[in-house]
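Structure first, sequence second, as always.
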């Protein structure tokens, strides 16, 4: 890696910030600096310099054309720079799943087959309950939970609970491999439920009423909403 590329690696990255468009480049330290100034090009960690336009590596970005540079840079990183890898990935998926089968699917159908559905229906809840292994120590609390998810106060929270417990809020189209479990944990009405996303497990304290379960679960979901679970 060249000294200039190394310097850019440590330079501030404003591409995802409104400052890039709102403030002059000089204020951001991206103009007039021998190493940090921007050009219409990209120097990958491995490989040759890529020009976004003819002679791009010699064309300095200014406040006048910085939006054009931003679009070109993002297009390269999100499209052009991964085109070869994406083509290889597409070829591999086609060989594994069958390109003829995939060609029959519309874009929404392919999204569902690949990552699941964005909604959880009443029928899905019935399947979810059937696929759940419940500890005898929490059978009563599990019954309250599924009743509220099916037709009670927790009905709008189905996706949030799925993400809290499994790491994904997408319901699988093919549920044959879906497993879920509800296990006990220490604590009573003041404790918060926990989850182990690696095992699709929800852990419930010894709640004494459905209301305590609902309130503490909602609190746990609220506290966990900003966690980027995967």
């Amino acid at each position: 890696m060249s000294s200039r590329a190394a310097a850019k690696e440590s330079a501030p990255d404003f591409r995802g910030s409104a400052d890039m468009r709102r403030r002059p480049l000089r204020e951001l330290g991206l103009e007039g600096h021998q190493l940090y100034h921007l050009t219409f090009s990209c120097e990958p960690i491995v490989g040759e310099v890529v020009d976004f336009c003819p002679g791009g590596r010699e064309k300095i970005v200014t406040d006048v054309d910085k939006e054009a540079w931003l679009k070109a840079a993002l297009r390269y990183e999100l499209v052009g720079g991964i085109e070869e890898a994406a083509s290889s990935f597409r070829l591999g998926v086609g060989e594994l799943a069958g390109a003829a089968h995939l060609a029959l699917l519309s874009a929404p159908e392919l999204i569902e087959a690949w990552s699941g559905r964005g909604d959880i229906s009443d029928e899905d809840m019935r399947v979810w309950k059937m696929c759940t292994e419940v500890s005898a120590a929490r059978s009563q609390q599990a019954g309250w939970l599924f009743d509220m998810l099916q037709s009670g106060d927790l009905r709008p929270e189905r996706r949030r609970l799925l993400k809290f417990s499994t790491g994904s809020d997408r319901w699988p189209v093919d549920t044959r491999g879906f497993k879920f479990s509800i296990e006990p944990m220490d604590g009573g009405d003041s404790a918060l439920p926990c989850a182990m996303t690696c095992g699709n497990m929800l852990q419930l304290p010894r709640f004494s009423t459905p209301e305590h379960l609902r309130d503490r679960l909602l609190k746990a979901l609220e506290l966990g909403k900003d966690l980027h679970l995967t």
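Margin note: The domain at 122-224 is CATH 3.30.2410.10 (Hect, E3 ligase catalytic fold).
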